Amino acid sequence: MTANAAVPPIRLDRYLALLALLLAMVFGFVVLGERQKAAERPAPVTGTLPLPPDPRLADLADERDRLLLEQAELAEGLATARQALAAAEADVERLEKQVARLEQDLAAEAEARAALERQLAEMAAERDRLAAEVRSITRIRERLAAELAALMAATTSPPVTPSPPPATDLLPGPSLAPDTRAGQPATGDRAGRLVILDGRRPAVAEGIKAYQAGDYEEAARLWSRAAAEGEPLAQFHLGSLLFEGRTGTPDLVMAYVWLSRAVAGGHLPAIEVRRRVRSAMTDEQYAAASAILEAG
């Protein structure tokens, strides 16, 4: 084999293609460079130049910024004020409730004070009434003491005074025998007073007999008649009978009435029994009894 036979022949078309490629690349670089130069050139200035900025616009911008800042501050202050207003409204509502509660307490205290004033007035009236009764009883006691002294001086033996009722039985059982003391007449003013002191008026004595025999209806009938005639001892026995409830349910109102009349008539043992009746009475019952006594 020769040397020329070992080297392959060079094809012309390949060289032409390579040359065309190189030319294209050079042309592309040239075009790219021209474009870059064209882009770097400044654009031609056309038209008029812009006006310089107005200083008032800057002032307005500053004023706008200041107003926006004030608006933000006012919004924050408004939120704070709203919170304070809500807290104040809650305090006002709480205070209104306290005021309403205090008004209720004041109304209750005023009512209680009025009730106390009424009680004080009633107690003062009762005190005055009791003072008047004490004065009346004192005068009656003095008069009876004088009459008793006169009777004792006029008789040979002292009269028998009635004893107060025992704790277990309000009605005593005095001697029912008529007054047969020698030399004493059964008529006249002195004899009448002696009968009242000894409790020996016939109706009263018969009532006591009926009571001791257990005939409480007959005793009530006899004492009612004598009590209506103004006999203090009969009034005392009738009031005690009504207080005991021997003829039915205890009648505290009329018991207090008859015992008060017996006290006013000078029968001192009726005071203790009347006190016991008063302690068992209600205010309404006492008012009713007082109305009956005031009416006469």
Index terms:
mainly alpha; 74% helix
In N-to-C order, the SSE pattern is: HHHHHHHHHH
Oligomer: single chain
Helix content: over 70%
Shape: rod-shaped
Radius of gyration: 65 Å
Which regions contain 5 or more consecutive residues with pLDDT less than 50? 155-169, 172-200
Please outline the major beta sheet: none
How many angstroms separate the termini?
Answer: 183 Å
**What integer is the average pLDDT?**
77
Give the DSSP E fraction (strand runs of 2 or more residues).
under 5%
Number of helices: 10
Strands, total number: 0
Which structural category fits the helices and strands?
A: mainly alpha
Description of the structure:
There is one protein chain. This protein is an all-alpha fold and 296 residues long. The protein has a domain of 141 residues. The chain is 74% helix and 0% strand. The chain is built from ten helices and no strands. Helix 5 runs antiparallel to helix 6, helix 8 runs antiparallel to helix 9 and helix 8 crosses helix 10. About 15% of the residues have low confidence.
Topology:
Layout: H1 3-6, H2 12-40, H3 55-154, H4 188-198, H5 202-212, H6 216-228, H7 232-244, H8 252-264, H9 270-280, H10 283-295
Task: Give the gist of this structure.
With 296 residues, this protein is mainly α. 74% of the residues lie in helices and 0% in strands. The chain has a domain at 155-295.
